[in-house]
Write the structure tokens for this entry.
Amino acid sequence: AQSVTQLGSHVSVSEGALVLLRCNYSSSVPPYLFWYVQYPNQGLQLLLKYTTGATLVKGINGFEAEFKKSETSFHLTKPSAHMSDAAEYFCAVSDHNNNDMRFGAGTRLTVKP
Amino acid sequence: GAVVSQHPSWVICKSGTSVKIECRSLDFQATTMFWYRQFPKQSLMLMATSNEGSKATYEQGVEKDKFLINHASLTLSTLTVTSAHPEDSSFYICSAIRGDTGELFFGEGSRLTVL
């Protein structure tokens, strides 16, 4: 069974500052890991995913995440926050067939001008 | 790109009525579809997994007689909330696995409000 823990339900940064959203996972099998963004009253948009291969994954909108097996982590970063990045971010884990996807509790990112 | 569409996007109904939400894969065949529920300011909780032509597999604690899931074709799964009550008000999101590639795609979500 898989599970995800997102540390920090709310993160606030200034525009132009580094964004770091933390995600730790638990999985009995090698995981597939995902970061999704959700804007109010909308569905999920995939930012990036790790399946196999390179552990540093680059996604859309300047986001990237690094899979660290030894730390069971998949933290999301962006060098410079933009106002449009304000949203809810979800980390998720699934098996290799995309089955049984489990989500973290979410982190709300606020960007201050 | 692959699209998963949900209909309706918004629905308001009276307590005691039943509501059907559709999840369609518009340009691919979906071997497996999933239904999630999301309460305000909370995460997505997996409700059930549905495979075309077979009964859905429900997560523990989800009432299968309350939330009827039908996956009648490779492009359509429906969630029917029977005898809806205000506590069923939520955001329901579906996802679908593309059969030929194994990729996962999410629908836009459907907000149900039960008065």
Q: What stands out?
A: The two ends of chain B are 37 Å apart (CA to CA). DSSP finds no helices and eleven strands in chain B. Chain B touches chain A at residues 6, 32, 34, 36, 41-46, 49, 91, 93, 95, 97, 102-104, 106-109, 111 (CB under 8 Å).
